[in-house]
Write a structure and sequence with these properties.
heterodimer; A: alpha/beta; B: alpha/beta; 9 strands; globular
């Protein structure tokens, strides 16, 4: 069973595919209107980032079939914001945007940040940010510019990060993706 | 599984052989690692039925055609040089918009390939298109960051089909394949060079005079960076070059007022070109580069060093 990577329009969707492949697992890129049948054939879901803004474009929710999928889920960037918005949290335009390098401070390793140093440099590209986590989620990290850089609900196996673990410039990014793959 | 060059080479030559069959193909060679690898793979697939064309757009670097011919010859690949500089300069006259420049260049390349294909009787065009090219050109849910000259599809009336053996690869993977194929370091380790060439290193309108300026500045940056990295002073950057800005600023030379062009020096560190950070080049090296540029290229009076990461900037200016 392949890990499904839902393409929300990120520049790095294919890089997620390459990273999962380099970690020894099979991955398949699917479109955001992917059918329940296709989702059922996957072992887990990774939501890529994308160019839309949840606050500007009235974009709003995880596609229903993904919400109902009950598979381990990792949301990245826009994916992280969609997870928050769909499950009872909130997303708003940040006071400042972040592009390029951002220093991530780990509040709690949880599952997804296991083995990561107390602070590390990650690559980011966003203006909107999650301002309220959904119920049942734990905050794992923050940065100077953005309050909620990573969160998870281990019981439901839903994990999400604002930064891009899949790019080379994020220190230890591959470890984070590996931590997610271990949950499958 | 991590990328395996040998199984990739086997799969892609077999796939090209089955796609091209008994037909003929031409390939646009720029001297870059992507098109060079695609050319060698094409030779392995269909042998004499592929012809390699190097299009001199007038926007190539110093001595590029000569260097590429030599490097490719050492890999057993013969190439034909087509001088199309007049075509490109006149098509780009007065054009400032970067996307328009890219579209025009893409069109002109197709015209030149069409002519060469007719001469050879080729129905297939092989291109060294790699993943970042089609990713950044947009499509699906993706925004168009910049239109890559080799991603636009071929006009139907050309009656040719595209063959792109490197579509799923990133630069670092292409280099692994190049080394596996035994290509010389002059090709396998060559820094990326944009398809539109110096056209995207001249911000604003393009003229042959500006092309000469940026060509000279690029040569100086390449010489100094390569010498510093060979001397162990710096890590060799992923990409390093000079670009010309359209604005002039005031200077003073030999007690006289000057009003001259500005050049940007760019050097970045990256693995796959998708994210990059500006290289931390020591000031003495930056000073050497700046001094050489303003001494040797008399129409340039000021030099900046680009300190922006990707994102939010891209590696090239346009």
């Amino acid at each position: 069973m392949a890990i499904l990577i839902v393409d929300m329009g990120s520049q790095y969707t294919h890089v997620i595919w390459r990273t999962v492949r380099d970690l020894g697992q099979e991955a398949k890129i699917v479109q955001k209107n992917t059918r329940p049948k296709e989702i059922a054939e996957g072992s887990a879901i990774i939501l890529s980032g994308g160019p839309s803004s949840v606050t500007k474009d009235n974009f709003f929710s995880l596609p229903t079939q993904i919400k109902k999928a009950n598979k381990p889920l990792l949301g990245i960037c826009l994916g992280h914001q969609l997870v928050a918005l769909s499950l009872g949290g909130n997303v708003m335009k940040g006071k400042s945007a972040e592009y390029g390098v951002s220093k991530i401070e780990v509040d709690s390793e949880g599952t997804i940040l296991e083995g990561m140093p107390k602070s590390f440099n990650a690559w980011v590209s966003h203006f909107d940010e999650v301002v309220k986590m959904p119920p049942g989620f734990t905050q794992l990290a923050h940065s100077e510019t953005c309050g909620i850089e990573a969160m998870e609900n281990l019981e439901k196996k839903i994990f999400s990060v604002q930064f891009h673990p899949e790019v080379w410039h994020t220190e230890g990014g591959e470890r984070i993706i590996e931590n997610f793959l271990e949950q499958i | 599984m991590p990328f395996n060059p040998d199984s990739y080479i086997e799969k892609s030559t077999a796939s090209m052989r089955s796609q091209i069959g008994a037909g003929k193909a031409i390939i646009g060679l720029s001297g870059g690692v992507d098109s060079s690898v695609a050319a060698v793979l094409a030779y392995r697939a269909v042998g004499k039925n592929v012809r390699c064309i190097f299009v001199d757009t007038g926007l190539m670097r110093k001595d590029e055609a000569k260097q590429v011919k030599t490097a490719m010859a050492s890999a057993g690949v013969k190439m034909t040089v087509v001088d199309a500089s007049d075509i490109f300069f006149s098509a780009l006259k007065k054009v400032s918009d970067p996307e328009r420049k890219r579209k025009i260049i893409g069109e002109k390349f197709i015209r030149v390939f069409e002519t060469e294909a007719k001469k050879f009787g080729a129905k297939y065009l092989v291109q060294g298109t790699i993943a970042p090219d089609w990713i950044e050109s947009g499509g699906g849910s993706r925004d168009t960051i910049k239109s890559h000259h080799n991603v636009g599809g071929l006009p139907k009336k050309m009656g040719m089909a595209l063959v792109e053996p490197l579509r799923d690869l990133y630069k670092h993977e292409v280099r692994i394949v190049a080394r596996s194929l035994g290509l010389p370091p002059a090709i396998s380790e060559r820094q990326p060079f944009p398809g539109p060439g110096l056209a995207v290193r001249i911000v604003g309108e393009i003229t042959p005079e500006k092309a000469e300026i940026v060509r000279g500045a690029c040569a100086i940056v390449e010489e100094e960076i390569e010498s510093a990295s060979e001397g162990g002073k710096i890590e060799r950057p992923w990409q390093y070059f000079a670009a010309l800005l359209p604005t002039k600023t005031v200077g003073v030379r030999g007690d006289e007022r000057a009003y001259q062009y500005t050049v940007v020096v760019r050097a970045v560190r990256s693995l796959d070109g998708m994210t990059a950070n500006f290289s931390h080049i020591p000031p003495e090296i930056l000073q050497k580069i700046s001094t050489r540029i303003t001494n040797e290229i008399r129409s340039v009076g000021r030099v900046f060093f680009d300190i922006t990461n990707k994102p939010p900037a891209t590696v090239e200016m346009e």
